[in-house]
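Suppose you are handed a protein chain with no further information: no name, no annotation, nothing but its sequence. What can you learn? This example shows the usual starting point.
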Amino acid sequence: MQDDLEEAARQAQPSITHLEKYAEDLREQDRLLLEFDANLSELQQLKAQPEFKRMHARNLYDRAGTHAQLAYVLHSWFSERHAVMRDLRPAASPEEEQVPEQVDKMRRMMDACRQARRDVDELLACHAVIADMRRQLREILPGGPALADKAAELLNNEPSLRSWVSVDLSLRSAMILDVERSGDYGVLYSALLAARTALSMRDSLDLKDAFSESEQLEILDSVVSRLDFSLESTRLYRALPRKAENKQALDDFNGILERLQREAQDELARRLQMVPEHSEASAVPAPGRRKQVLIRTRNRGVVVGSRRKPEGDRPETVVVIDPIDNSELARYEESSEPGVWQPVGDVRGEPATPTPAALATLVRRSTPLLNNAERRIAKVRSQAKTATVGADIEDILVQQARPLDALAQQIQEALTRENATDDSAAGIDAARQCALLDAKATQMREEGRRLRVEILKRQAPTVGQIAWLRSQDEVVIAKEGERVALAKRKGFAQDYLQEFVIRDKDGSPLWYAHFHYASADAQVSDFSAAHLKTREQRYDRGPQAMATQSNQALIEVYRSRIDKSSAQQLFLTL
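A reasonable first move is to predict its three-dimensional structure. Written in structure tokens, the prediction is:
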């Protein structure tokens, strides 16, 4: 192994052959260490060994070090495979998919994906072994805990475990889409981007003192929301007609997302239990400690990303970057509303311009697209019955309307290009199909908005959803009576309440907003607490003890808070 390292140092870029030899030597060393540890344990059972703890601990640490070295090698291999995948672009049209050159490119890309999957699987296993070695070391006193801390630093210069889980999801989705080759790939791709963005944001919290306590809660809440969207999109993709051979791959993909969502929700709930008052008084870290920026979006909570300077006539942007290959996962620009950012375009980049297809070919494509559109609307309606994030359901239908818009535009261009506008045979038929595509795309967008409204109105309230519903003229907010003194509770200061009601368009109450004050004549902006209530919670005098609530209930209480800015915008000027 020493020879391997010296040879690697002599090479500007170690060859794959050399790295393969080094990896084999590392695997053999791990096998020998495992065998030595088993023999040592057997000796200890026969007769107590005075140096057993020290030798056992050192052996565990050496195994952790061996797997760290193997992780470095696997990372290098992955970089080679990824270079191949990055240089290959998908076909721009169904016809181009059948071109021999494109078929060969796709074959090479998928071969690289499969090889990369094997590398990443083994790399994830390395992380698991190191975690297990650290767990065992913490139980060996007196010297084990110090070695466990030392083992934690072995991969400090490598991408995090979450980064590799993100890559694993990307490779899995590529292989799923390769089998399906269906037009609804955008649904799964959106799920993938949401999950990868969530993992990147969660990684940002590992930088000590980069964010205040309240900011950390906001970030975790946004991580949970993005993973919720990812799960809902994946479930919708699975519900659409799928090939049988993809069932296990989709089940595994969904299972990983469920685990990530559960872990994120558990972490947010634990943090909320530690900060029962959800105080925002913690100091904001000095700018020098923060390598990334925190921005706020209208419907997606907060985003952690890197600032990019303006280019040409484009404004400043904030991007979420994959830490392994530096590709963009998401990009945001500031909207017309100060301090509120919005996503920009498609971070995959524009595909090559497709070769214009013949009008007859385009018209033939329109029929299955129109037939599938109604089935997809029905699937999304079914999914919406159990969905929890209305904006995400709307986004799914908006995305699925885009292929119809694109094909309608291509048909219109072909009509002009082929001078077929007055053709009673092709022109009228094509014009009719174009109109049907436009109408169906509009229907999908309108249905997405309707479902979003329906979902939001049945959910526990948040200021974000109320602001959106009001902007759509779906709710009316009004002051409900005057400020009143609440019954005095023993051990608590006198509390005064001002209530607002949020009504549906038909006048029925959906939710309530409660603003608490220390006195009857306190300024309206000087409320001591403010939160949203469902109809059932209207007369509750506060949440249950935090320790007795489920994770979901804890998160709902946290999301029901009304911040100063939202209070002024939605309630206090009424």
